[in-house]
């Protein structure tokens, strides 16, 4: 299990300072959820971890070393990034092929079936709805089975019933991985997160929230403690 650390990270875009001497630890083997308004810097954090972006100053460390662990990271971006000339099945297997890993079509088909795409494995992206494309992208990320999983609004395009069903399906694949999940849904963060951070202001300030100490995951959205904390999160986010 790999820990991610931000050490005195400074990010500036022209005259706008987004992060100023950011020091933050992402716990190894835990699910960390990021909440906050659009444009506050949640996606930038994922890009810094993945190595797609570099700080103006400071360091991003993985396992206490400079960020050279890209082979240990799976990144599910907001856009599904499916290749239009490949079928759904080939799309979800492609990342493994690019990394020199022999893909497992049987496992891929099983996961696609579990997310409701069993009838679409030979379809092309243009034949899918937005939610179906997002589910295919989710399967592609899970199949990589990396110790660090970065997820940028992975369930945003889904209806609430499908979203909660996928929480149940996905959670076993998140256990014992260092997961950073960006979401605008505080209940989703409470269901899945070991740690929750609210991001606001500019430069960004981080406010830590301790989810209910429930062993069973995903947490039951009807649990009174979860619902109470959901109401409190909504107040903090609206403030």
Automatic annotation (TrEMBL):
Cite the InterPro entries for this sequence. Answer: AAA+_ATPase (IPR003593), ABC_transporter-like_ATP-bd (IPR003439), ABC_transporter-like_CS (IPR017871), ABC_transporter_ATP-bind (IPR050166), P-loop_NTPase (IPR027417)
Transmembrane helix in keyword set: no
Q: Where is each ABC transporter domain found?
A: 4-226
Q: Establish whether keyword Transport is in the entry.
A: yes
Q: SMART domains under this entry?
A: AAA
Fetch the Gene3D superfamilies from UniProt: P-loop containing nucleotide triphosphate hydrolases
Instruction: Provide the leader sequence positions.
Output: none
- Give the UniProt keywords, A-Z: ATP-binding, Nucleotide-binding, Transport
Return the PANTHER family for the record: ABC TRANSPORTER ATP-BINDING PROTEIN, TAURINE IMPORT ATP-BINDING PROTEIN-RELATED
Q: Which family does it belong to?
A: Belongs to the ABC transporter superfamily.
Its name, as the record gives it, is ABC transporter domain-containing protein
């Amino acid at each position: 299990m790999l820990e991610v650390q931000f050490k005195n990270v400074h990010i500036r875009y022209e005259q706008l300072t987004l992060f100023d001497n950011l020091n933050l630890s992402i716990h190894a083997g835990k699910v960390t959820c990021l909440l906050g308004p659009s444009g506050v810097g949640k996606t930038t954090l994922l890009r810094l971890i993945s190595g797609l972006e570099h700080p103006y100053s400071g360091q991003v460390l993985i396992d206490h070393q400079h960020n050279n662990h890209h082979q240990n990271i799976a990144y599910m971006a907001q856009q599904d990034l499916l290749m239009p000339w490949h079928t759904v099945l080939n799309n979800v297997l492609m990342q493994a092929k690019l990394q020199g890993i022999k893909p497992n079509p049987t496992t891929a088909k099983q996961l696609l079936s579990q997310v409701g795409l069993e009838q679409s494995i030979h379809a092309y992206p243009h034949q899918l709805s937005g939610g179906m494309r997002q589910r295919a992208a989710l399967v592609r990320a899970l199949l990589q089975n990396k110790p660090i999983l970065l997820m940028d609004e992975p369930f945003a395009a889904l209806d609430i019933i499908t979203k909660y069903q996928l929480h149940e399906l996905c959670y076993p694949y998140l256990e014992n991985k260092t997961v950073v999940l960006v979401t605008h849904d505080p209940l989703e963060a409470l269901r899945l997160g070991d740690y929750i951070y609210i991001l606001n202001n500019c430069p960004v300030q981080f406010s830590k929230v301790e989810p209910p100490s429930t062993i069973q995951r995903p947490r039951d959205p009807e649990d009174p403690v979860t619902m109470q904390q959901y109401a409190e999160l909504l107040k903090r986010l609206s403030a």
